[in-house]
Structure formats: C-alpha cells, structure tokens
Design goal:
Length: 217
C-alpha cells in the first residue's frame, strides 16, 4: 500500500474514533494492527462507550455484522462442497465419529452425543450398513435434574426413530454450579445396539482405515 493509502486509512481511523469506535474495532475494519490505530488516533477526542460486560452487541454493531457475514459465507462454501459427497464419504465420516465418540469395548455398538445430527447419522448408518433387529435398539438419556424427561424422550425418539418404550432408565445428574451453568435441555443421548459381532466389525473397519493411512507405503 502506498503513502496515499496509508493517509486515507489514518483519516478513516480518526473518523471512526471520533464516532466512539474502539481501537480493536477500527483495526478490524481497516485490516491494520491495533498499535497503528493507537498512534493514528491518540489525539482524537471521543465519548467512551460503556464497556460490554459479556452482553451481546447490538444487531447493527459493525463487528457483529462482519462476524455474521463471515459465518454465512462459510456456510455457503460448506454446502457447495458437501454436494459432491458420496455414501462412501458418509461412511468414513461416521466411522471417524465412532472412533472418537463410540464405545470401544464390550458387546455392543454405542455412541453418545448432545448433537442430534451426529446420532441420526450414526443410527441411520447402522440401519443401512447392517441387518439389525429394530427391537434391540436402545437409547439412554443423561439429563440434569429439573429438566423435562418426557419432552427429552420425545425429542430423541422422533429424531432417532427409536420408540420411547425402548428407552432405558435415564441418568438424572445433579448440576454442579462450580463446574458449569449451561444445561442441554434435551440432555445427552446414547444410542445402543447389543451385538458383539457388530461391535467387532465396526472396530475392525476403524482399525483397517487407521492402518491403511498410517502406512506410508
């Protein structure tokens, strides 16, 4: 950037500072360092705004608008990229999920999550990939005390296609305010299917993928 560009940036920075923009906001708007902004506007008078103590910025705040625009752009790019994904890609994704979140031992395949989309993918894949007995599918909820267990059961039953009568006794946790204050209103669900053979097959698939790509040859 030439000298004229720097002069224009400096002038714009001073205008924004006079309008009570913070140094960080100006730096982000002009794509320059905060230290440069500080030098440019150090003699500009402005009315300081009340500090934001963790409350969300107003809907027209420039930083918020910029963030929302970036999020939307990322979403559109991801949707375009995902259009070409195949069933094979989905299978690899689910196996990756299971490698991170699934049950690694015992005589069942099981995965827990608070995200319904992940569990929907997992349960849907199990139904397509293997011949299963639907009556053996189980779901157990981890739900903090004080939250509506019937509503949570209905929520997960609808999304996973597992009847409420196949939900086992939920775990009702007592919230510890010293650790976290946020509670998932529908809790964490674990989808389970008892089968030693299926568990061995899933773990063998994950192991084969790991060995195949870990081997430089």
């Amino acid at each position: 950037m030439g000298y004229r560009g720097k002069v224009e940036q400096r002038q714009r920075a001073r205008e924004l500072r006079a309008a009570s923009w913070t140094l960080q906001e100006i730096a982000a708007e002009l794509d320059v360092s905060k230290s440069s902004v500080s030098v440019w506007v150090r003699d500009v008078e402005f009315d300081p705004r009340p500090r934001n103590r963790g409350h969300p910025a107003g809907p027209e705040h420039p930083m918020r608008l910029k963030r929302e625009a970036e999020i939307e752009q990322c979403r559109l790019e991801a949707e375009e990229w995902a259009r070409d994904l195949t069933d094979r890609d989905l299978e690899m994704f689910v196996l990756g999920l299971y490698a991170g979140e699934g049950n690694k031992t015992g005589g069942e395949i099981a995965m827990a999550n608070t995200n319904p989309a992940y569990l929907q993918l997992f349960v849907g894949w199990v139904r397509r990939r293997f011949e299963i007995d639907e009556s053996r599918l189980r779901c157990v909820l981890y739900l903090h005390q004080g939250l509506d267990i019937d509503a949570a059961t209905a929520f997960w039953s609808e999304r996973l296609g597992i009847p409420p009568e196949q939900f086992t006794k939920p775990y009702r946790a007592v919230a510890d305010s010293t650790l976290r204050s946020r509670k998932h209103v529908n809790g964490c669900a674990t989808a389970r299917y008892g089968s030693t053979l299926l568990h061995r097959r899933v773990m063998a698939m994950i192991s084969a993928i790991a060995c195949r790509f870990a081997d430089p040859g």
